UniProtKB/TrEMBL annotation:
One of its GO terms (biological process) is spliceosome conformational change to release U4 (or U4atac) and U1 (or U11). This is SEC63 domain-containing protein. It comes from the Eukaryota. Keywords: Chaperone, Endoplasmic reticulum, Membrane, Transmembrane, Transmembrane helix. InterPro entries: C2_domain_sf (IPR035892), Ig_E-set (IPR014756), Sec63-dom (IPR004179). Its main location: endoplasmic reticulum. It is a multi-pass membrane protein. GO terms for cellular component: endoplasmic reticulum; membrane; spliceosomal complex. It is found in: Endoplasmic reticulum; Membrane. Residues 2-214 form the SEC63 domain. GO terms for molecular function: RNA binding; RNA helicase activity.
């Protein structure tokens, strides 16, 4: 009987967990990890399509978060600051002690305060500020969403993802959900509450939720 450790599914699971935990593998294991990671975003997108077509919202959101984890090489429970260049766990802990938990918090800092907290060379500081535009991207997309829900580009630029084995272009998912499960579609007259999820396929922690109300008129009314 073959050992379970030789099972391809066990191996793939272990290599993915090593990727999320940022543990280095070498030799044949590194080659195998690369073979798993390269097609993963495409497979996850197909998985999202199948799940969404069945109306399974929570599973679809989990699959989207898996795409983010694969791209960034980190767990969804890790600090999102680890997605930025030059950020280590030690530096992240120092920032969290000063109340900086997310890229959104980072975007609100002045250049002087950021330099005082980071204590990094100007070149590295520029790398961080350049790559922290994920929050600005999400804010820009939300403005577009409020104006025109059909005017959302599927790709918005290159992704900072040094742990993914090849360059990637960032993409977004737009997922609609009813806040009241009995309203599968606005077929009846009255107000229907919905939530839109705007999900990045590459960055953790910058996803957006937007609540809106649709007032459906009675087709037989004036």
């Amino acid at each position: 009987e073959n050992s379970k450790n030789d099972d391809v599914h066990v191996k793939a699971n272990a290599l993915l967990q090593a990727h999320f935990s940022r543990q280095t593998v070498v030799g044949n294991l590194a080659a195998g990890q690369r073979e798993i990671l390269l097609p993963a975003p495409r497979l996850i997108k197909s998985l999202v399509d199948v799940i969404s077509s069945n109306g399974w919202l929570s599973l679809a959101l989990k699959a989207m978060e898996l795409s983010q984890m694969v791209t960034q090489g980190m767990w969804d429970r890790d600090s999102m600051l680890l997605q930025l260049p030059h950020f280590t766990k030690e530096l992240t802990e120092r920032w969290q002690e000063n109340g900086i938990e997310s890229i959104f918090d980072l975007a609100e800092l002045s250049a002087d305060k950021m330099q005082n907290l980071l204590q990094l060379p100007n070149s590295q500081l520029k790398d961080i500020t350049d790559s922290s535009n994920g929050s600005r991207i999400s804010e820009c997309r939300m403005v577009t969403l409020e104006r025109d829900m059909t005017n959302l580009p599927s790709e918005v630029g290159p992704v900072h993802a040094p742990r993914y084995p090849k360059p990637r272009l960032e993409g977004w998912w737009l997922q609609r959900a009813s806040l009241k499960l009995e309203f599968v579609a606005p077929a009846e007259a009255g107000k229907k509450d919905y939530m839109v999820f705007l999900m990045s396929d590459s960055y953790l922690g910058i996803d957006q939720e937007y609540v809106f109300t649709v007032n459906v008129k009675d087709a037989g009314g004036d």
